[in-house]
Input
Amino acid sequence: MKPIIAGPCSAESEEQILKTAEFLTTKTSVKTMRAGVWKPRTRPGGFEGYAEKALQWLQKAQQQYGIKPIVEVAKPEHIESCMQYGIENVWIGARTTVNPFSVQEIAEALKGTALSVMVKNPMNPDLHLWLGAIERIEKAGISNVKAIHRGFSSHRTSQFRNPPMWEIPIELKRLYPELELYCDPSHISGTANLVPYIAQKALDMEMDGLMIEVHPTPEHALTDASQQLSFAAFEELQKHLVQNNAICSDMQLEQMRVLIDDLDEELIAILSKRMKIIQEMGDYKQANQMTILQMDRWKTMLENRLKCSEKQGINTDFSLSLWRLIHSESLRIQTKIE
Ligand code: PEP
Ligand code: MN
Output
């Protein structure tokens, strides 16, 4: 069975940490518990983590339940604190991986330690930045380095908080096959109900493990409340995850299918955005008493689109039918307004 790292987004109290450790060790196969103790927040002034106090709770959980804690580190001082509290596993978060200066500082602090380090992908879809961060940690002499795919920040509307863009982790695996690659379905999904779908996809793609946010009372969580699984939901997930999916034994085909799913989702998001602007144009035309169909504009538009499609190797007949269909839907949306 592939390993799962689970635990709350943030360590919020001793009780929360011990309760989670007890649950994970008695009801699941989880051996490593995650918890954020320094929380990088988008805006200042909110809950920023319990730092050393939380490391004490994690140390206690390790002593009482034998579960290994893993925490996020973002600065060299964090490494020192982890060592002080007997934490042996750390991860570098997406907001840190983007910055080679920060990663190098952390790498320097890691020199001579026996910590295991997981490197999350950077916020932006840049494979080389991710690889670069992994290399900096390895060059510091850390032998146990793994990667975590947590999706990528995107301006596009998507059902996911951080769309997975599977082509990037797939390429990482191709370039660096011996590197263990985990998936973090929680930060990809952004909502608890999508977590099982992404978790299964990751296993089907032969990822080496999962990191999942679990909280005793997700609705009261101080961070990432909407994406954390309740204990019951986590047990359910573990029960239903198919480890060796026979249908997906052809990996290459499965990976291509996932890429197509990703692209189709993008296509749908773009179409939806386009329709919204069409609707606004309809309102504008109506307010300014303009005709809906402006024949000259449509003719130039179509010519440009056909030329552009041809350049990209798209069949002209297909392209013509597609643009006619899109245009007729636009007209329908705009006429409905009147
Ligand atoms: C987290 O794991 O809670 C976290 C902040 O993750 P990321 O760096 O993926 O945003
Ligand atoms: Mn989180």
Remarks:
- DSSP finds 13 helices and eight strands in the chain.
- The radius of gyration is 24 Å.
- The chain has a mean pLDDT of 94.
